[in-house]
Amino acid sequence: MLFTLLITFMVCTLPFQVSTIYENYKDRQTKLPSWYQPVYFSAINLMYAHSTINPIVYGAMNQTFRKGFKHLMDRSVIFLLVF
């Protein structure tokens, strides 16, 4: 599980890190190329996607997390039905 989480983290954050390094270390006099903005936008979306993928990986690979999440959902449904 740890290896999967590490690979997911690296895949989701590496494009953002590379694009930020490119932006910071390019020549200050030149404009950013036309392809940079879509790449940067996609990199930020990958960062957000990591926050979505992380609980899915935990749920798929960790029995204790699955039981706790099921228990939480059961209690949430009961709470919504009461109020």
Automatic annotation (TrEMBL):
Keywords: G-protein coupled receptor, Membrane, Receptor, Signal, Transducer, Transmembrane, Transmembrane helix. InterPro entries: GPCR_Rhodpsn_7TM (IPR017452). Residues 1-20 form the signal peptide. Residues 1-58 form the G-protein coupled receptors family 1 profile domain. It comes from the Eukaryota. It is a multi-pass membrane protein. It is found in: Membrane. This is Substance-P receptor-like. It comes from Aplysia californica.
